[in-house]
User: What shape does this take?
Amino acid sequence: MLGHLFELFFPDNCAGCKSPLFKNEHTICTKCLANLPYTDYINYADNPVAKIFWGKLKVEAAASYLHFTKTTTVQKLLHELKYKGNKQVGHVLGYMMGKELLKNEIFGTTQYVIPIPLHPKKERKRGYNQAWSIAQGIAHAMNIEALERAVVRNVYTESQTKKTRFKRWQNVESIFSVKEKDKLKHQHIILVDDVITTGSTMEACLQEIIKNEGTKVSVAALASA
Assistant: This one.
């Protein structure tokens, strides 16, 4: 009884539009989910995210799930995930993306999901790594294991938001290391981030991972700009 009264006066609201959620809705309302700008990149190999890595690094497959533009529902959802502590946004969208990844013959062969790591200092300040929430959702959907600390970030870097591509690369060069080398040996993993723009952070992390014997990597971002 008290639970119903609490829901009446303090209903759960959609992370996107802030409207009260119906009983069968969770975190994001049906209307917002229906109107999100899905990319369809998972369905073809020569998509814009995959092209970021062409001629640079060996990536098995790469895709983003959503288009990112400012002042949209996608930006609001990512803000909730990254700065408002709403981890469920990552779980819900990660799960949805994972179901789509399963339909792709390359992504469907992966054994592990790994998030782009935050430096411990930044993670303590924020309270969690938003990419880990997405990775957990993907792993749940694909019925594979998510590894939170297989790759670590050793150097604390400044925000990438207002940097040029060259400056972004300088900012992340040689800052990652692989900790679970034996576990990743001869495995195919998905490296996950929330948003991919120039791909410099992904490139730096990929460079370290593919040094590991027999490790193959595919890239999945929740959104791409």
